[in-house]
Amino acid sequence: MSDSTTSDETVEATAASGATAAEGGRNTRRILQGVVTSNAMDKSIVVRVERITRHLKYGKFVRSHEKYMAHDEENQANVGDTVDLISTRPLSKSKRWRLGSIVRRSQDGGEA
């Protein structure tokens, strides 16, 4: 073996670089973007995600929304912030998402 790295070191390096599942890394995760509507709970936020779909028969664009509970480990998101959510393993009965990043802070300073 003339290689300077072993196969174990190669696998660890691939996993650390965020490679896809086919390359030995993590699975691809769904990402949603929405607005925080509540942060009253400890380490949890409620995020409203809005979708715009086209009606099959009439062709009109229809807005629909859904609320997701997400895990916010450091309690950094405030009401009105636009955030990215990343899918994760089930953390509780209703939390299957975690806070990825804060895209834009709210103008009014948050706390309502």
Characterise this structure.
The chain has 1 helix and 5 strands; from the N terminus they run H-E-E-E-E-E. The chain has a domain at 29-104: Beta Barrel (OB fold (Dihydrolipoamide Acetyltransferase, E2P)). By secondary structure, the protein is mostly beta strands. Helices cover 9% and strands 41% of the residues. It has a 5-stranded mixed barrel with strand order 1-2-3-5-4. 12% of the residues are buried.
Largest sheet: 5 strands, mixed, barrel
**Got a strand count?**
5
Strand percentage, roughly? 35-45%
Distance between the termini: 63 Å
Which word captures the global form? globular
Cross-sheet strand order for the largest sheet: 1-2-3-5-4
Mean pLDDT across every amino acid position: 83
* Quaternary structure annotation: single chain
Q: Tell me the number of helical segments per DSSP (H or I, 4 or more residues long).
A: 1
Shape-level CATH architecture of the domain at 29-104: Beta Barrel
Helix content: under 10%
What structural keywords apply?
112 residues; mainly beta; OB fold (Dihydrolipoamide Acetyltransferase, E2P); five-stranded mixed beta barrel; 5 strands; 9% helix; 41% strand
Helices, strands, pairings?
Layout: H1 7-16, E1 31-38, E2 44-54, E3 61-71, E4 82-87, E5 95-104
Parallel strand pairs: 3-5
Antiparallel strand pairs: 1-2, 1-4, 2-3, 4-5
